[in-house]
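Sample 3 of the quickstart, ligand N-(5'-phosphopyridoxyl)-D-alanine:
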Amino acid sequence: GTLFLNGRYLPPDQASVSVMDRGFLFGEGIYEVWLVVERRLVDLESHLKRLDRSLRESGIPVPLERAELVAILEKMVCLNNVTNGFIYLQVTSGAGERSFTGTATGRPTLLIMAQEKDFPGAISQSEGICVDLVPDIRWLRRDIKTIMLLPQVMAKKAAMAHGNKDAIFYDDEGVTEGASSNVFAVMDDKVILTRPLSHSLLPGCTRDRIIKLAREAGLDVREQVITQDQLFAAQEVFVTSATYLVTPVIRIDGRTIGNGQRGVVTRQCQDLYADYIR
Ligand code: PDD
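Result:
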């Protein structure tokens, strides 16, 4: 494969970053992940908007103008021959001395990687995943897509050790989001709940798209906090992200959700999303 690092296209083993990079030393960096379907970046614009927002909110300099960035993203799809897969982009505030506030001259570090991954089944994955439900120990600006992912790594590794696939976080109000996804619950009366946007969760591009598609299809989506009780009482639960697309959740903390199988509303959202991305 070929990656992009600070203006150059390189094989991974020839790409290196300074140990003084502030992403390495402080975790001062943000990222994006695009789903690529048939060589197109899904929801290109909304991810670019979120990228801008993450940069602005974290005070990390904008590495490139948008048009230039889009050209590089598209070139990466071609160079790596990605028909279906993912594009990963990361920006850190660059190298300097190890000082919390950094140096004014630091140029941001921009890394872009592409990964081919065939997911014909995953687009409408019928198999559900089992997850842990754990306290959200992250910081209080989860709306910024930061590379500071230690809590997510810990939660996912702990879930794996329990034989589960992933983790869902909760705070004092209820479910915040998955460790790398947003959470939807389908209640008895077919109402679909997902937490309203705030600093407590990432504004997922897939979340946004699913809300739009589901509403257009006449489904009743309400942006409301999902309490823990509602989560376990739900008929269906599913998660969304650039990598999960729409994936059913069938067990949470060992408790079966609904009838333990992908539900009809989840299936409907998968089909809506599949039609949208193809
Ligand atoms: N994660 N919430 C969190 C904490 C996430 O990390 C992600 C995405 C989402 C879903 O956002 P989107 O629908 O825009 O992908 C929600 C990416 C895929 C990752 O970390 O690999």
